[in-house]
Amino acid sequence: MKSPPPEHPWHVLYTKPHREEMVCAWLSERGMCAYLPKMRSHGKEHKTRMEPFFPCYLFAQLHLEQCDLTSIGWTPGLRRVVAFGGIPATVGDRFIQFIRERLEVINRQGWMPFCAGDQVLITEGPFRDMIGVFERPCSATRRVQILLDVLGRQTRCEVDIDWLKKV
């Protein structure tokens, strides 16, 4: 039986806020393979934009035998290479491929199971068992805005999307 080809480890990099793109570009310009997972997001005024799926994190294939961590540590916008007990954290090709495939589907089809105006039941949290009206997603996080009838007024609330079920 033939063994699978060896995986090329991807190192996990932690950046300064909103510097993921800059770090990714800097590494790519120097011939390193870098990957910044992005997801389509809806911001204010319902504008669509691409945001990092893991804010402040990206992945890079760093060949530590050819370049040392201290030279990578001086990358503009990079805080550090993530390490545990002094050993750089890595993930395999399969993990990166899984993220790429899932984000491709999400970005093509959309991740939102609700449309504006859908009635939703809140299944968890302080508003559990209340029915609201889905308004819109908030960001790349799994938070959404819904409208609840509170004291005879439509009140906007932000909840985790996993707490909602279509009525």
How would you characterize this protein structure?
With 167 residues, the chain is α+β, with helices and mostly antiparallel strands. The protein folds into two domains: 10-109, NusG, N-terminal domain (Alpha-Beta Plaits); 119-166, Roll (SH3 type barrels). It has three helices and 14 strands. The strands form four sheets. Strands 1, 2, 5, 6 and 9 form a five-stranded antiparallel beta sheet that branches. The chain has a five-stranded antiparallel beta sheet with strand order 13-12-11-10-14, with no helix packed on it. The chain has a two-stranded antiparallel ribbon with strand order 3-4. A hairpin with a 5-residue loop joins strand 3 and strand 4 (48-52). The N and C termini lie far apart (52 Å).
In short:
With 167 residues, the chain is α+β, with helices and mostly antiparallel strands.
What's the arrangement of secondary structure elements?
Blueprint: E1 10-15, H1 20-29, E2 33-35, E3 38-42, E4 48-52, E5 57-61, H2 69-73, E6 78-81, E7 83-84, E8 87-88, E9 90-91, H3 93-109, E10 119-122, E11 131-137, E12 143-150, E13 153-160, E14 164-166
Antiparallel strand pairs: 1-5, 1-6, 1-9, 2-5, 3-4, 7-8, 10-11, 10-14, 11-12, 12-13
